[in-house]
Amino acid sequence: MRYLIRNAEAILAQGISSSATDLRIADGIITEIGQGLLPQEGEQQVDASRSVIYPGFINTHHHLAQSALKGIPAGINQGLGEWLASVPYRFWPHIDPELMLAAAKMGLAEQLRSGATTCADHHYLYHLNSSMEMEDVLWQAADELGIRLVFCRGGATVQGSHKGLAKAGVKPETLELMLQRLELTRSRYHQAESNAMRRLVVSPTSLVHSITADDLKQVAAYARSHDLKLHSHLLEVGFDEQQAQALHGCTAVEYAQRCDWLGEDVWFAHLVQATEQDIQLLSETGTGIAHCPTSNCRLGSGIAPVVAMEKAGMPVTLGVDGSASAESGSVLQEANLAWLIHRTQQGPDATRLETVLEWASDNAAKMLGLDALGALAVGKAADLVIYDLNDYRFAGVHDRQWAPLMCGEPMRIKASFVNGRQVVEGGEVSGLDTEALQQDVIEGIQRLYKKVDA
């Protein structure tokens, strides 16, 4: 399908005149950006009047399974350690493929409706006897909705010091089984192209708590032998640092380095408790961060020092984290909060809108190795979002190109495209039966409680 998008108030494009109003898409690629572009035969026209066009946001850390675990009462006022036991690790061994599929669709749809076009999902629902169907349905959900999926394959090889994993009594995989399953996923799904719709990332659930140092080295070697990226959680709270010091006699970041888990092909979620010494080592090695401010606020974990990280040269990106600890899958909300929260600590010039947009788009594309994405420019993949400003709440906004980031949710998307395919139309995900999806989630949660309470 070929499209001509016309009459936008602004197009946040690289190296293009600020007066540009029109954008042309052909064969999944942006082929022209300008003003007064004339329709060509066979093109479908999209009216972007009273709208602004952004590059599609790239969410670099999520847990789609948690889309069905929002607002669990026992975990509402708990910190990370207790919350993990009360919420995800209490429920996830009992999630069936049908609920996983529904949760994935719901989580991906939330992201699409907020302006995301790529989701990196950290999927850790693996144990000794788990079924590969639990990951197959994630790929299925992404295919059906048309969103790019970066599949961060989690899991554990030991119960270790992870409070939630130990309490749930989950028997982890062996290293051999993890590697076998990784290879099966890589051979079936992974695409290496810079505009890939499917990517595999090697992502043990917790770097410090649920896998041994030797196993970490082996999975890192596996990843690099196949040119796969590496991802995990680190320093969300102080417990990582305490355990690294107690068990290994070094900082958590130094432990990561010892285990071959730092480098330009590595990014960590959270890093809330990173020190100046940590930031120096992370920046020297080119290691990146998925900054998740909403979840970090919700669990009382703190504020990651991403302003200092960026100044030091670290790649900074944004993640929504799991909806069980954020109750939202909106990348736009994450970007809005990232713009605001650091100003509370460091003053009104701590973060700029242009910077936050880079975190959510171009930085993320480069960090994930999806270099064809992340920006609106001729020759780039046509991943873009048309934010509708035809609402009274935006009437008083003077610099309207920044209205989505400044004003935040609720936002309505007039249209959204992934690889040149329209995936959102009139605020809704194309082809998604939301009533049926809602019923599938409700029935799946009812089944879940019967298993948990049995």
What's the quick description here?
The chain is an alpha/beta fold. It has helices spanning 80-86, 88-91, 97-114, 133-145, 163-168, 175-189, 213-225, 239-248, 252-258, 276-285, 293-298, 306-312, 331-346, 353-360, 362-368, 403-407, 434-452, and strands spanning 2-6, 10-11, 22-26, 29-34, 43-47, 51-55, 57-62, 116-123, 148-153, 198-202, 229-234, 266-270, 288-291, 316-318, 384-388, 412-418, 421-425, 428-429.
Measured as a percent range, the helix fraction is: 25-40%
Radius of gyration in whole Å, from Cα?
Answer: 21 Å
Shape: globular
Distance between the termini: 51 Å
Number of helices: 17
* Average pLDDT rating: 95
Class from secondary-structure proportions: alpha/beta
Say how many strands there are.
18
Give the strand content. 15-25%
pLDDT below 50 for ≥5 consecutive residues: which ranges? Answer: none
Largest sheet report: 8 strands, parallel
